[in-house]
Amino acid sequence: MPDPALLDRLRTAVDAGFDQQTAFLQDLVRFPSLRGREAPLQDWMARQLARRDYAVDRFSLADVPDHPKAAPMVDADPAASVQVVATHRATNPTGRSLILQGHIDVVPEGPHEMWTHPPYAATIRDGWLYGRGAHDMKAGVAAMVFAMDAIRAAGLEPAADVYLQTVTEEESTGNGALATLLRGYRADAALIPEPTGHSITRAQTGTIWFRLKVRGVPVHVMVAQDGSNAIMSAYALIQALYAHTRALNEAGRDNAWYGGPLYGGPVQDPIKFNPGIIRGGDWASSTPAWCEVDCRIGLLPGTTPEQAMAGVEAAVKAAAKGDAFLANNPPEITFHGFQTDPYVLEPGSEAEAVLAAAHAAVHGGEMPARLSTAVNDTRYYGLYFAIPGLCYGPKGEMAHGFDERTSLADLKTCTLTIAAFIADWCGVRG
Fold first, then answer.
1. What are the residues facing 428 on neighbouring strands?
2. Identified catalytic residue from 38, 149, 157, 169
3. Pairing of strands 389-391, 190-192
């Protein structure tokens, strides 16, 4: 449990720096750091961290070796994807080391006219900061940076090495987080302040991205019966994949994590399928000769990405056999982007206990747990590098949606909690 006097010092420091922290977050949100366009924000971030006297390492995904768990980047250039690691190096370390990691990539904002406030204006209204990425997860990035600032402002420093990492590709492959590990950065624990509403993520599903490619026979629409419609063929495959997902969720009702009452379960239909992007056809009066659909499907703990991909292939193959055209012209499936394993943070780790104590000291109650039907980067630490991966962060709303926003009051509280966790886990000294 954090020392009460130390917690008071940290609270005073967080309060004193919060206007600066809010402005910092607004600056973060004003960068449209979409996939492939993150470098300007990462350059800015590198300068901000260098001014804090951290040793800063800036590198691209092309600068690290390949790894079996690196996901294919079909639509992005690894050399343009920039990662930043800032290191606090303790002299004669006595505490436990820590990685603080957040992603700065954001998803497309959609039609701007459907937002109440412009998506990159970082508007503050009624205690909320609005903007694409404000909630997912630039607020968490601000929290981890200013938690370290608060420790310094209190006249202290961590007594162990701390790595502040901002990464890309979290929304598409996870390769940014993996790259930091392949670069050689290791610690006794990792904390990723995704917007969990001050709860610990107990489990996350895996995710698979894939692209369906369907061909057709184009004819003039006046003789449409003589050709085939690739868009409608793709629609039939989509319906088959929805049926496949329903069957998976039915079979997964007894899943040890998502099917029971622990940690907020059972979770209804934890495997989510989504046809997210569709392209096809060339002319409104011609039956379309082609259609491509980019899709996402989840998988539960106990299932591997290879098994999930095989299931998709089997469902598509079975549906194609029932279509007169597709039976002889089978659709193509390309797996690109996410190919992630599910991850469970098993209860009982020392790192989680220290975080729970910091949460209790700040919030006055037990740290809740949650089950996620999406992914976060902690899986790399916990599954492949034996580093406890904690996912815990502030509160917000409308991730990936219009009017995405983060609660400033919750951001301040979360910043204090993270500062208390750092102080207890790493130890501090003057």
1. 158
2. 169
3. parallel
Query: Hey, what CATH topology would domain 4-204+342-429 get?
Result: Aminopeptidase (3.40.630)
Query: Quick one: CATH architecture of 206-339?
Result: 2-Layer Sandwich (3.30)
Q: Tell me the residue type at 405.
A: R
**How far does Cα 81 stand from its chain's mean position?**
16
Contact 185, 385 (CB under 8 A): no
**Domain spans, the chain:** 4-204+342-429, 206-339
Is the separation of the CB atoms in 338 and 375 below 8 Å?
Answer: yes
CB 131 within 8 A of CB 119: yes
CA distance 319 to 237: 6
Handedness of CA 240, 246, 251, 256 (dihedral sign): positive
DSSP type of residue 64: S
Full DSSP string of 165-218 = EEES-TTTT-HHHHHHHHTT---S-EEE--S-SS-EEEEE-EEEEEEEEEE---
CA gap 342, 305 in Å, rounded: 9
Q: How far is CA 329 from the centre of its chain?
A: 37
Active-site residue among 38, 105, 194, 323?
105
Is 169 noted as a catalytic residue in this protein? yes
Q: Please, which residues bridge with residue 211 across strands? A: 294, 334
Residue type, 174: G
- Is residue 214 within 8 A of residue 326, CB to CB? The reply is yes
Encoded tokens for 344: 């469970």
Q: Is 15 a catalytic residue?
A: no
Which residue carries 């502040």 as its tokens? Answer: 164
The pLDDT tens digits of the residues spanning 106-160 come to 999 999 999 999 999 999 999 999 999 999 999 999 999 999 999 999 999 999 9
- pTM as predicted: 0.96
| Residues 2-18 pLDDT 10s | 789 999 999 999 999 99
d(CA 357, CA 107): 34
